[in-house]
Amino acid sequence: MGIELQRVKPFEICSIRPPTENSSLTFRLTRNCYWNRCAFCPVYKYGARFSRRDIGEVLEDIRRAKLIDDLMFEHSIGVVSHGGDEFARADELAAAVERACREAGEDGAGRPEMTSADIDPRLAWFHSWFKDSPDMTHAFRHVLSWRIVGGRTCFFGDADSLILNPDFLRRVIDHVKLSFPSVQRFTVYGRTATAAGKRSTADLEAFREAGLDRVHFGLESGCDAVLSLVNKGVSSQEHAEGFLKTREAGLSCSAYVMPGLGGKSLSEEHAADTARLITRIIPDFVRLRTLEIFPNTPLEEKAKAGEFIEADEEQVVREIRTLVEEIDCRTVLMSDSATNLLDVQGRLPEDRKNMLAEIERYLGLDARGKLEFSLRSRISSFYGQYGGLTADIYREVGPYLRQEGLDFTRASDDDLRRGIVVIREKLMP
Known about the structure:
The protein is α/β, with parallel strands linked by helices. The protein has helices spanning about 55-75, 85-105, 125-130, 135-150, 165-180, 190-195, 200-210, 225-230, 235-250, 265-280, 300-305, 315-325, 350-365, 365-385, 390-395, 415-425, and strands at about 25-30, 30, 50, 155, 185-190, 215-220, 250-255, 285-290, 330-335, 345-350, 400, 405. An eight-stranded mixed β-sheet has the order 1-4-5-6-7-8-9-10. The chain has a two-stranded antiparallel sheet with strand order 2-3.
């Protein structure tokens, strides 16, 4: 006898997760961010409240995800190729589950989401893919994405799982392993302030012994003036202490750095101090996420008041050049954010020369060439992230689309700048 459809329910997934975890199975151990004061961050600015989830809630979500996986297996979705669209088949099955739940008088949906009427219209795009509580279709698609890429990774959210008791994490990981034995890697976001001030090395070792493999830290900058400007709530010294303690415990560490975060006035200090911090902490990965100023954030208010002047794209590229030139340790530099202009990545120090050559090719362009390069790059990034162009973007770039590619001959500099702005407003880190 097969699984009764009305038994299937959606579970909470992590909309905010590292790029490397986009196809990971995810479970929320906490909701939202308890700090939630970073001036550049738009994620939890619409009434979201931080909460710790009960162990029973988390284990129930794992059970729900397992039931969805088993149901799709029953229907051979994501298991063998039928020559069709597996996601379309998963959507049909999710719709059938919702119908069965309604007929049984049960609610198959999650908590109601905010609508576009509830938020600033400039952030409607952001909220079109940020799901605080996914519906059935999102839950099915999430599990299917994980299964299709091999079913080997799991991410726990939301913003700082290091605040949890190691025994809590152990129970969750053990349950995931029991339900999904193919999982081989477990990762979380963490705050260096938590690792430095709230966790002992023994605590962090207990996380590793529980099965945690990697912590993703948002450093953003190694410059104290920049960290203060954006209210990061941590100093460069605390960054170093938390990071080094986590590495000492045997956990892999990724460091996220935000070129442009110092604006025009602190650009050079931001880049140089961040390179020194990276050299000191020796992360396994350095991941670049170029600053975007989002609506209704404190940083946007600073910009409107003239207290923050955004660095232009050339200045940001020069910051990245400083990082590549001055980071003096073995690490992997990644450009895996859609906000980045250049695809500068590789191993340091081995690939330093090639990365610098890529940067110099851009800096060697004239002003018009830089504009055309930027628009081409932004179109490619958006298409790669979302699989197509929105109507407003198409209105801007459609006149320049040709069968052989993009032709900007008839575009003015202002046309190019307008197209760049329209796309950048929708590129999420």
